[in-house]
Amino acid sequence: MAVAPNTLPPEAAELAATHRLGSLQGTFTPKRLNKLLFALYIFTTIHLLAIFVIPGVLFFWWLRRTPDFSRRQAAKRLHLFEHGLMVHPQSGDGVVVIRWDSVRLYQNITQKIINGIPSTTEYVYSAVGPGRDHATITHFYEGPETWGPHMQQAVLRAQGPAALESVLAGETVNFGDLSLSATGLTARAKGLLPWSEVREIQVRAGRILVAGTGGSGAWCNSAVSDIANLHVFLAVAEHLHTHRPAA
Known about the structure:
PH-domain like, 32% helix, five-stranded antiparallel sheet, alpha+beta
């Protein structure tokens, strides 16, 4: 659940000003357990402590990772600003601040299938900044279907124009497993595919599929989780595929 922007604590506001993050776009709190699951965990803890002390203690220690059983976890926040993010990682203490114009953002969204039936969806975003700045942001925070795309779009606005300009100037821009240049698309495991031979680029089931004009199958098949700044990659690739600049 997003918290009203005017609830930003003074220390967070000072840190945001230091890093020139701009206006606050939204704040997200840790996701709480539903009442039934919370009651089940309480019952399980009491039952284990009454019969098996050590397993009961270990189970309660595991529960302390959740905001329902830890004030420290409950106090954590994910703040999204105009020019960057500020987040308390799920594990450990401290706060990480990274700007959109310097981040390499990776996403890994997976849906569990139990007995052939779709179950919960897990969201893991890795934000890598300059130096040692790094944060893993997960469904620990409420609303990943909201803050995830918001982060990708913010990175696109901050880095997209410069990435396209670099490619048109003759440079190769690396996005992890795939790279883009005026000549074509390069995959680590496959080499270069000229733009004139690229038939289609699509995202499906957590994979980026690049189809060439010379066959019916995919020329390369890369995991979305191996691509930095996914929305920047897709936007620049679409532009280059459509306009086919001269190498």
